[in-house]
Design a protein that fits this description.
- The protein is mainly beta.
- It has a single domain, classed as Outer membrane phospholipase (ompla), Chain C (Beta Barrel), CATH 2.40.230.
- Helices cover 7% and strands 62% of the residues.
- It is built from one helix and 14 strands.
- The strands form two sheets. Strands 1-2-3-4-5-8-9-10-11-12-13-14 form a twelve-stranded antiparallel beta barrel. Strands 6-7 form a two-stranded antiparallel sheet.
- Strand 10 and strand 11 form a beta hairpin.
């Protein structure tokens, strides 16, 4: 991890702690509105030695952490943060030998979004934001796990509006100029040597982000996030094979969760991705899960 990255993260954390501490005794500051849930889902299929048909056993597990917190720190500053962590693996059994193979990563996500909105009581408010997106490790080369690669850092500023807020529910949207830094740890030279080096790409452009959290009923909840980004300049534009970097990037996530009991819930998650630099077609992901959910606060 680069020194610049470490400095950026530490600076953000220190500023957050200092602002919260400084505003903690302000009579105008409101209490934190926060939520944190942890869920775990598993599925298992197994077959006896006498089973006919060539099917193979499998075991899958996925763990998710979803948290959000927001607070009116002072009459002029409102702070919000959203954290999403997901990781899962799939184990499969050889259909012939019945031996279990090494696990394959099925889910991997780190997403931490922070927004400071300057509440001027106008139609829109200025904001400054910092977002970190990554994964726990890159498993594309099994013999060399590259942790937190790629790592995308987005710093943005512009105008934001809160369209709806009631208790723990809200709808907010922001539009501004963003600067993205993408850090990759890539294998160079002979792949057998597994030597790596860090590379950095920087671009800047227009960013739009909309966050939605709604309580549909006592046991039904919806969470959505739509991010769109249009790059205006790119540090590698001179060497890029085409102009795909100019296309609009889209990341649209939706999740509906139904609580069957205090600790058992079923959720349906969809994600639509479009990044022409990676693939020229829309990518879709759907997940239906039934598992244990623990609401910590």
């Amino acid at each position: 991890m680069s020194k610049r990255l470490m400095l950026s993260i530490l600076t953000l954390l220190l500023l957050t702690v200092q602002v919260v501490h400084a505003e903690g005794d302000d009579s105008t500051a409101l209490d934190w509105k926060k939520a944190l849930t942890v869920d775990l889902t598993t599925t298992q299929t197994s077959y006896s030695d006498s089973w006919v048909g060539g099917e193979a056993g499998s075991f899958n597990w996925v763990a998710n952490v979803n948290g959000n917190a927001r607070r009116q720190l002072s009459p002029l500053v409102a702070y919000s943060t959203i954290l999403k962590l997901s990781f899962g693996q799939t184990y499969t059994q050889d259909a012939e030998t019945k031996q279990w193979k090494s696990p394959q990563k099925s889910t991997d996500l780190i997403d931490w979004d922070n927004v400071a909105r300057f509440t001027l009581n106008g139609f829109v408010d200025p904001y400054a934001a910092f977002r970190l997106e990554s994964q726990f490790f890159d498993a594309s080369v099994p013999r060399k796990k590259r942790y937190f690669s790629p790592l995308k850092l987005t710093e943005s500023a512009g105008l934001a509006r809160k369209f709806y807020e009631k208790k723990d529910d809200y709808i907010t949207s922001r539009l501004g100029f963003g600067l993205r830094e993408i850090i990759r740890n890539t294998i160079v030279g002979d792949t057998a040597l597994l030597q790596t080096e860090d590379s950095t790409e920087v671009d800047g452009g227009i960013e739009s982000v909309t966050d939605v959290i709604l309580t549909l009923s006592d046991k039904l909840h919806y969470t959505g996030k739509l991010t769109m980004y249009k790059a205006l300049f790119f540090s590698e534009s001179d060497t890029a094979p085409n102009d795909d970097w100019k296309s609009v990037d889209i990341n649209w996530e939706n999740q509906i969760t139904a609580n069957l009991s205090k600790i058992i819930a079923v959720s349906f998650y969809t994600q639509l991705l479009y990044d022409k630099q990676i693939r020229r077609r829309i990518r879709l992901k759907e997940t239906m899960a039934l598992g244990f959910t623990f609401k910590l606060f």
